[in-house]
Amino acid sequence: MFEIVVKKTLGPKITLYEVKAPFIAKSALPGQFLIVRIDEEGERIPLTICDYDKEKGTITLVVQAVGAESTRMESLQEGDCFADVVGPLGRPSELTELSPEELKQKKLLFVAGGLGTAPVYAQLKWLHEQGCPADCIQGARTKDLLIMIDEMEEVTDTLYLATDDGSVGIHGNVTVALQQLHDEGKHYDLVIVIGPMIMMKFVCELTKKLGIPSIASMNTIMVDGTGMCGACRLLVDGEVKFACVDGPEFNGHLIDFDQAMQRAKLYKDQETRILLRDQEKETHHGGCGLCSE
Amino acid sequence: MGQVDMMKKVPVSEQPAAERAHNFQEVCLGYTREEAMDEATRCLNCKNPRCVSGCPVSIDIPSFIMQVKEGNVQEAYDIISLSSSLPAVCGRVCPQETQCEGVCVRGIKGEPVSIGKLERFVADTAREMGIVPKGADEKKNKKVAVIGAGPAGLTCAGDLAKKGYAVTIFEALHKPGGVLMYGIPEFRLPKEAVVEKEIENVKALGVEIITDFVVGRTATIDSLMEDEGFDAVFIGSGAGLPKFMGIPGEQALGVFSANEYLTRSNLMGAFKEDSRTPIMVGKKTVVVGGGNVAMDAARTALRLGSEVTIVYRRSEEELPARVEEVHHAKEEGIIFNLLTNPVEITTNEEGWVNGIDCIRMELGEPDASGRRRPVEIPDSRFHIECDTVIMSLGTSPNPLIHTTTDHLDADKHGCIIATEDVGLTSREGVYAGGDAVTGAATVILAMGAGKAAAAGIDAYLSK
After folding, report:
1. Domains in chain B: boundaries
2. What is the pTM of this model?
3. To the nearest whole angstrom, how far is the Cα of B65 from the nearest Cα of chain A?
4. Whether A68 contacts chain B with CB within 8 A
5. What is the pLDDT of residue A21?
6. What angle do CA B406, A90, A261 make, to 5 degrees?
7. What is residue A287's predicted lDDT score, i.e. its pLDDT?
8. CATH classification of B143-240+397-461 is 3.30.70.3180, yes or no?
């Protein structure tokens, strides 16, 4: 059992959980993820690591209540436990293999979309600790959905905010912001983008055009997260890769995003059915066309 | 005692095929006490029991059968327990026909003694009677880490605990059991009634099991030995990585590895109506492959409500699955499309599977495995309509452990290199066995390797 020691609301339906998991905290590196199960009935869900504290033996997750399990998670309080937290899974960011001297040679730009801010924070914080802070574009639909701005400011060289509705920062999505930085003459050696797949796709299309090597972190469907099920498979440069063990980070210019987005829809109907069942309990009478089976 | 035909096995009751095709309850119902005692009379109690040498863990088979003949379940259980920690599992899933029963002297003229069913009877009855194995009287001051709570790991841990070692098993999934939990379906191996109880018995010997712990990620073997004070390590991490064919369309929506399909159903309980883990139930499912896992996947899809066809490139004779499983699958209505090989999975505009293109094969000259090699028949391409495809082409070991452990050698297939007798790897104090070493094989061979390694670790730590 893994105790929740801190629970904090970061935005509409966005919650931070700091969880006691000493072994994971000790081994975690930026770029890795976890598999979490709420309780004995729970599904195994992959979540990114936002932060870890080796001294306190805790790890931090940020979850947006959109699916059945993440919605159910909101009812957990401080002192409650997750039945299972497994990790850290996947390969750490390749940046962690470089020395501070090598890192200083590179001008890095992170692009964080929506909840992707959480795993980007882990990477920025690590770089900051190495004495090599990077720049970051943090984007969201609107101001309220921009999370952890103060924390991000603290670990970033320059933080650029962007909102689709222009409520704060650059008016436009992260791709617009990236183009703007480029037009202003900012040079970057590497872009690391984490967020919704569609956003990563467009960012990688742009960086390809601009000739900037890019890395994207793939949040695919998973069951075990250790290479067993193959549900997370995707095409990278025409080759089948497993996001859980070969990734989650890949060369963004070589990922087949269209196929990955298609595969992400695989269990959408079933998941909606479970969500409806949770919301309406015994009063659900069908008619939605989803529960006909 | 009834009249026993010495040439034939006492028949065992099964759930009727028409009924079981729609539920997940166990197919084979096992012997009653009377049936078991009758069957036991067929054992010749040979002076040179070939069955014992046919058993990978060398259970003293004639001795336990003699106790069954007298109705002494406790005594029979104690004899089996000397050699096996998982008798209720082995009695169900061992390929007895190629092991103990395959060499049974009774089998020369008639049918061999039904050793597997007798083992199962003893284990099940012992459980009902509340009999548990005995732990060590004296504890040793040495710690052993076992990686993976599957058949190899549980056996190794059980044997070491019986010798008094402090054993901790590290399991990556949220439940112990390995392939017994995620791979083999409920209708062949009940989870709560059988697997969980056998694991409780291993724990009763003093073994600690830590779940949610991925060795190689949560901690490495080196840190377990250096920081956590383990004196020896056994790697029983299995062969969990699924293979795909590499044909066009394999990335389509509706194509699954057998591992994914079975893990969703078995480990996550997706076959139950109120499960929170989804599973895809097609109208028509094609399972590619002919092994036990293919049969399990096919029979699971059938029970979930799909029509199921198995596509296999060789002929019936070469099917790697156990004869009993193929027989059960046929009885339940699985269609077998043999000497057939998929070449392409076809999809609709939205990317969902709508069929599979195959070619017909014929058998040519024997290949390296001694089996006749399937050869394509020209211009024989044809289409099978389906909405789900399950790939069951075998699995290979997970590279995580050997890539995160210094100086631990593996071969080009990712199998950890270990000595045949005791499973010693290229690292002092580190042993390995089961599918992690051999590639995908059987439960009992993994148990045999776990047992041998336990003896090796005991000798090493007694030095």
Report:
1. 17-128, 143-240+397-461, 242-394
2. 0.93
3. 39
4. yes
5. 97
6. 150
7. 59
8. no
